[in-house]
Amino acid sequence: MTSAVTIPRHGGTGSRTAVAARARQVVKAYGSGETRVVALDHVDVDIARGQFTAIMGPSGSGKSTLMHCLAGLDTVTSGKIYLDDTEITGLKDKKLTQLRRDRIGFIFQAFNLLPTLNALENITLPMDIAGRKPDKAWLERVVETVGLAGRLKHRPTQLSGGQQQRVAVARALAARPEIIFGDEPTGNLDSRAGAEVLGFLRRSVDELGQTIVMVTHDPVAASYADRVLYLADGRIVDEMLQPTAEQVLDRMKDFDARGRTS
Amino acid sequence: MTVLKTSMRNFLAHKGRMALSAIAVLLSVAFVCGTLVFTDTMSTTFDKLFAATASDVTISSKDSSNTGETTSNTGKPPVMPGSVLSEVRKVEGVEDAEGTVFSTSVTVIDAEKKNLSPTSGAPTIVGSWNRTDARTMEITEGSAPKGAGQVMVDADTADKHGLKLGDEIRWITAVGTHSAKISGITDFTITNPGAALFYTDVPTAQRTLVGESDVYTSVNLTAAPGVSDEQLKQNVLAAIGGDYKVLTAKETADENQKDVEGFMSVMKYALLGFAGVAFLVGIFLIINTFSMLVAQRTREIGLMRAIGSSRKQVNRSVLIEALLLGVIGSVLGVGAGVGLAIGLMKIMSQIGMDLSTRDLTIAWTTPVVGLVLGVLVTVLAAYLPARRAGKISPMAALRDAGTPADAKAGWIRGLIGLVLTGAGGFALYLTSEADKASEGSLWLGLGVVLTLIGLVLIGPLLAGGVVRVLGAILLRIFGPIGRMAERNALRNPRRTGATASALMIGLALVACLSVVGSSMVASATEELDKSVGTDFIVMQDTGQPIPPQAVERVKSVSSLERVTEYKVHEVALGTPDGERVTGKDISAADPTYATDLRVETVQGDLADAYRPDSMSVPEKFAEDHGIRLGSTVDVAFDDGRTGELTVRAITTSDTVIDGGAMYTSIDTLAKYVPADKMPLDLMVLASAKDGQQEAAYKDLKAALSDYPQLKVRDQTDYKEALQDQIGQLLNMIYGLLALAIIVAILGVVNTLALSVVERTREIGLMRAIGLSRRQLRRMIRMESVVIALFGALLGLGLGMGWGASAQQLLALEGLKVLDIPWPTIIGVFIGSAFVGLFAALVPAFRAGRMNVLNAIATE
């Protein structure tokens, strides 16, 4: 782990902890009474700074919900979520928006880019919105890292799916957020393009000291992470450090079998 | 069946998106139906009034107008000797005969010298209380007038001016001013649309209105039982010969109806014209709605095609949706139209035209016209989008985004647009070059239509350039938010173009009319400065003649150097080319008129036209009828003899003031027209002694203080009055164009609302990566402002082009000065920005309220 040396500077909160985000006893429930569905059931989780964390689990396990709650996109029913030292549960929309803008990066499965803006404009969009000037050197490095130097003036429709996701990765990185959330960022890509994107994410953790949380159901994607969290029925049921694709796949099969027998 | 079902489901699923289009259809249909109901109701009201107030048979003087309305240039109504009454009493079949005296050439004032005449243009009538009127009126307070000191007032007028029993009022006629106290108040049992009525007894009416005794303006006959009106008329004609006008009740009512019909049909077609503009604008809105619905449903339609729907079925399903929209919008529109008519009636009663909802007339054709028009326009407007829907390939179901834009069609369209705009521009140029008004107006019409269609077609192409420029100027200060707004406006130029076009139409008309109106004022002002050589103009704004006593008052003002009287008399002319021109007016004035109003002559000296048995003719008339200087013209004076007048001056036709007037002297007129038929002055011009301008102005006003109907104006007043008059007319037209502009604003709202729906995912993404609600709303507002300003720019530019061409054309009629009212133009442009802000209110609010997660998850 080389993260400690290259933690990116951040122009906000003062002292930094080793934990980038925390969830404490988080419950997310939909509906009430008979129809009440619990998506997250008293979840406690720490996201380590400078690490690449993958969240796995079968459909309906609550993995996306957990990510959305951590990222301040969704509200929780009870419990607390902290980003660094800031409690984000209970923040008003205005503060949350600012928080997402300044401290969080996103990579979605698809439709990551605004069709009216070219690649470079898309990359600098969060900073533009905030009215900040992007750090030129940093931007160049990010663009270099994701290999987009020749395509910055292209509109999203002129880019392949893999290139589009790379632009999305660059955008997430460019603003130097404290944490990047990826929602199946390679879900729409073929294995080669997916590997490329995952490679960049890995490198950004290793070389740029970025913190990344990624939801996926692809064991290969999960194998790029430092740590894999398994969710089932709204609870964290297992954890794996330095996983390989085979290990992850075996574990998933395990869950599947258990799920089927129970 | 399935097609219908899908259409129904789609329609219901998107009813929110259809709402604004439905409102546009509703408004246009409502305007049409409202106009029809309103004019029909007016017609009914007058019908009832005329039918109820006409006696079985009415006899009046040959000189009186058919409607029995007794205005005349002499200021006194045409009368018959009293002997007529006693003669017809003996005629077989007459049960009752009553002589009446009425005049509309009166001004009635109260004790404070306030004019009691209606401001709506309805007549003021003073006359004798009679049994025919008593049938439709009841005395609600006091009693019928008896003797010279009493007068009875109608209840509406009494209400309006707070008149009570015992109040003193005065009426001013050519005979003099008479004063009386109110003895009674009488109310109509039917609807009186606004005339002010004052009743006296017969001798008082004879003395104060005509200045004679034993004369009548009309004799009302009641038929004996079993005698038809027609029979009675024949009996009367047989008894008193053809020296009088004899009309049955039906004929009287018909004549009256014909009299108001002209006014009503002008009003009706003017209102319908504005409704037409609203429809035109609505078409753009409907086209946009369906284009967007089709675009949003591309994948769905692709799927339908993939699983076997035919092109025709897809096409039809869209058209059926349009049909549903048209039917719903029109049905609601017909209902709203009735409401609108009632509203209009309320407004009209505010300005003095009372119409009762009891007479509300909805002809069966009204809803039919509304429905057919609404449905037809909607379906026609949806035709193009429907065709485009039919062309969607089954492959669209598999593609991620919508169909790629049809670039080639865009170019062809742009090219056609360019050619049409060019041709239109050339036609407008030809308009300004035209020598004849008829030819010029043809070019103008062609130019207006071609440039309008052309600009609508190249709108999408222009959108690219213009929006970029607007963006560079206006949006850059808003940084990336402005840039995104600009890009969004440019994203679908066809949509932006159509939305802006809708606004363009209304604003083009506004700009055109404002240019013409302001050029009119400027031209008239310039000509007034150039040609008017007098200080004061005295006249009645209603165009009625000036009582002779008032003229005497003017003449008695000592600070005046000269007073010029001006009269108009109807003549028929026998010209050197052997033709007989009837229905012309000749202006008879004092010789000083030639100095008071300097009209340029082409030949001769205008002062010579005032020599005995002389006249002047305008250039055009001279050319048309082979008249040269020194030619003689046979002038047959109405009610008088025919004289041979020598043409001693030919005036230019190139003038706004007194355009086309022929001049002669009052002395010449008096030579051929008997004294009792001499017209009263229409206008009196007065010039102050040197250096006494201000004193004269005050003296003149003081001298005429007993005649509040007369306006004394110096040149400044006169120009202001002219400006006010044109300004009022323009305001009325702007008010009516507001409907079209409202529909256009709905179009902007519609486009934005649908765009927001279309971009749900994008908005979700932007919100996720940190765009605040406020920034999002600002972005949508900016987009809206840019679209509105684009429309305003096109509209104002186009309208100024039209206006300038129209002015060039009207220059032939003396409208020589082109004046572009920049404050109005700039005001409208800035106003459009606010329109944009306003239009974005709801869409921006809704976009801001979107749930981020749901938005991202949207397909």
TrEMBL record, chain A:
Q: Name one Pfam family in it.
A: ABC_tran
SUPFAM superfamilies with a match to the protein in the record: P-loop containing nucleoside triphosphate hydrolases
Q: Which UniProt keywords apply?
A: ATP-binding, Nucleotide-binding, Transport
* UniProt xrefs under PROSITE patterns: ABC_TRANSPORTER_1, ABC_TRANSPORTER_2
For whether the record's keyword set contains Nucleus, the answer is no
* GO molecular-function term, one example from the UniProt record: ATP binding
| Name of the featured protein | ABC transporter ATP-binding protein
The organism is Streptomyces composti
UniProtKB/TrEMBL annotation, chain B:
Low complexity composition bias: residue spans? 64-75
Query: Where does this polypeptide localize?
Result: Cell membrane
Which PANTHER family does this UniProt record tie to the protein? ABC TRANSPORTER PERMEASE YTRF (PTHR30572:SF4), MEMBRANE COMPONENT OF TRANSPORTER-RELATED (PTHR30572)
Q: Which family does it belong to?
A: Belongs to the ABC-4 integral membrane protein family.
Coiled-coil region(s): none
- Native species of this protein? Streptomyces composti
Q: Does the keyword Nucleotide-binding apply?
A: no
Q: What is this protein called?
A: ABC transporter permease
User: Region (Disordered) spans which residues?
Assistant: 60-83
- Protein's membrane topology: Multi-pass membrane protein
The UniProt record lists the MacB-like periplasmic core domain at 19-236, 496-700
Q: Where is the ABC3 transporter permease C-terminal domain?
A: 274-394, 736-851
Q: Which UniProt keywords apply?
A: Cell membrane, Membrane, Transmembrane, Transmembrane helix
Query: Per the record's keyword annotation, is Cell membrane included, yes or no?
Result: yes
| Pfam families given in the database record | FtsX (PF02687), MacB_PCD (PF12704)
Q: What stretches pass through the bilayer?
A: 269-295, 318-342, 362-384, 411-430, 442-475, 496-516, 732-757, 784-804, 824-845
